[in-house]
Amino acid sequence: GQNIDQPTEMTATEGAIVQINCTYQTSGFNGLFWYQQHAGEAPTFLSYNVLDGLEEKGRFSSFLSRSKGYSYLLLKELQMKDSASYLCAVPFYGGATNKLIFGTGTLLAVQP
Amino acid sequence: KAGVTQTPRYLIKTRGQQVTLSCSPISGHRSVSWYQQTPGQGLQFLFEYFSETQRNKGNFPGRFSGRQFSNSRSEMNVSTLELGDSALYLCASSLGDKGEQYFGPGTRLTVT
Prior knowledge:
The complex is a heterodimer.
Chain A: E1 3-5, E2 9-13, E3 18-25, E4 32-37, E5 44-49, E6 53-57, E7 60-65, E8 70-75, E9 84-91, E10 100-102, E11 106-111
Parallel strand pairs in A: 2-11
Antiparallel strand pairs in A: 1-3, 3-8, 4-5, 4-9, 6-7, 7-8, 9-10, 9-11
Chain B: E1 5-7, E2 10-13, E3 19-24, E4 31-38, E5 42-50, E6 53-57, E7 64-68, E8 74-78, E9 87-94, E10 102-103, E11 107-111
Parallel strand pairs in B: 2-11
Antiparallel strand pairs in B: 1-3, 3-8, 4-5, 4-9, 5-6, 7-8, 9-10, 9-11
């Protein structure tokens, strides 16, 4: 089976750095996605990691360790607009499908 | 290119009724996936269609069904609605066999 764990909520201060962790257990591995979802809106793609290491994209970076079943999303220079839910997801492993298994999401609140 | 569109955006139904939701993927995308999002369960996979074929189905009762048309547009149907079906229903499309999924704004279904 496949299982994903993330913290439910986090709080951080504007201008600071925050790290959102995600651990997963899968029977196979086809990469890991991070999505951002503002309240009442659709999830939007942030990153996709398939190899170990850190990938940086502006203020956002994502890290993957396949041997540890672990990923994190790093947000730098936090802005109020970064207040959102951050979803970690892995593709279902087994057959041809685009099915994604999502964690429950981490609700990030950025305070002034 | 236009994004994923879903209609209607909001819907109120009573128990026992049925409902049909529609999703138009990004032009050229052949894979359409449906997800149910609730506060308690997060994003749960319903089913995925690729070139009019259902490739995978989530753990939902038979009251939930879907289909995909030759133009890749997809519909999902829920019959005999229950209060617990109240949720945000999200549709996502993908260009190829696997990869990044682009989400629509969702249909907010309320069952009273």
